[in-house]
């Protein structure tokens, strides 16, 4: 198997093009066994998937990473370097230097690191302009060597431009991007390409709905069927996009393309987004330490392998289905607008 490809962010940090997402340990996806979580992280790292995405609000995610990182360091073995991307998601309020610095220090303590590779900033209310204060302080901490990369999460194109115009260098923006939700293509892609900003995407597999498991299946509606926060969230997105019948047409098409390339539906769905020009990497959720959760290592490696190349015919077949969907940009607004009133 080829080495996992990497992309270099604006500040020089190299991250894998497939990132291991840790939202799934926030307890909205099942009870987490920390010991098993650390063991599972080792398997991903051994496979070359060394980049982990987490947040200060993802339950024990930072602590679990810290345990894993500490265990690796104390093992005495020649271990690969890890890349740890976290998020700072404050409640709206005063954004003085001491507030921001305390939050950054808390993440460093939990993650058991001396500096932060990347802080991805999220803000709930654009009407409260104190997000510019917070980003200014993060930029100062970057200049002091405490943070390597400053990034955003769920910011729209307008606000990204505003932040860049304040002289704050942004390395990436984490947004939803999938065959279902292609809003970034409307204008964010172009802005990112012009400003050396990478998109790190989530929801690319619609919480697992974009897989063979749901091909030919009746529409899931109950909480028992939509048993994780991800499944419920992305089922709602499918409903807005065009509904279950159109989604089944998409799965049939993806299954045909996957069989042609001897890979999974998930690999095709991921590769499609990886091939978008502004996309630096795709975050694939990992339910580390959750009983009964499968590993997705082989699918992740396949999706970023140079051997998987979608052809113009593949794109045409897929887009013949997706172009029949509703315009989510018109329906919801730009990336992240679904999180704001």
TrEMBL record:
Coiled coil: none annotated. It comes from the Eukaryota. InterPro entries: NAD(P)_OxRdtase_dom_sf, NADP_OxRdtase_dom. CDD domains: AKR_unchar (cd19101). Residues 17-321 form the NADP-dependent oxidoreductase domain. This is NADP-dependent oxidoreductase domain-containing protein. It comes from Oryzias javanicus. The lineage of its organism: Eukaryota, Metazoa, Chordata, Craniata, Vertebrata.
């Amino acid at each position: 198997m080829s080495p996992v490809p990497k992309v270099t962010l604006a500040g020089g940090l190299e991250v894998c093009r497939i990132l291991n997402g840790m939202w799934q340990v926030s307890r909205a996806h099942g009870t987490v066994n920390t010991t098993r979580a650390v063991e599972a992280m080792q398997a991903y790292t051994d496979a070359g998937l060394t980049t982990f995405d987490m947040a200060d609000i993802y339950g024990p995610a930072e602590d679990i990473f810290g345990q894993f990182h500490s265990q690796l360091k104390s093992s005495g073995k020649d271990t690969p370097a890890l890349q740890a991307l976290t998020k700072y998601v404050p409640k709206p309020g005063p954004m003085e230097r001491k507030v921001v610095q305390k939050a950054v220090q808390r993440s460093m303590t939990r993650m058991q690191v001396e500096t932060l590779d990347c802080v991805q900033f999220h803000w709930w209310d654009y009407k409260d302009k104190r997000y510019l204060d917070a980003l200014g302080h993060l930029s100062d901490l970057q200049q002091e060597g405490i943070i390597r990369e400053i990034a955003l999460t769920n910011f729209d194109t307008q606000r990204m431009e505003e932040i860049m115009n304040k002289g704050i260098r942004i390395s990436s923006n984490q947004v939803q991007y999938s065959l279902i939700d292609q809003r970034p293509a409307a204008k964010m892609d172009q802005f990112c390409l012009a400003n050396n900003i990478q998109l790190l995407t989530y929801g690319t597999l619609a919480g697992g709905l974009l897989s063979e498991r749901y091909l030919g299946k009746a529409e899931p509606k109950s909480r028992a069927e939509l048993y994780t926060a991800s499944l419920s969230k992305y089922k709602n997105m499918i409903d807005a996009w065009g509904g279950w019948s159109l989604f089944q047409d998409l799965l049939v098409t993806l299954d045909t393309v996957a069989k042609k390339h001897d890979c999974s539906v998930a690999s095709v769905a991921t590769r499609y987004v990886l091939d978008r020009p502004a996309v630096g990497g795709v975050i694939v959720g990992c339910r580390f330490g959750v009983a009964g959760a499968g590993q997705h290592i082989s699918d992740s490696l396949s999706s970023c392998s140079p051997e998987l190349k979608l052809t113009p015919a593949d794109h045409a077949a897929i887009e013949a289905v997706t172009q029949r969907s509703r315009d989510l940009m018109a329906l919801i607004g730009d990336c992240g607008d679904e999180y704001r009133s």
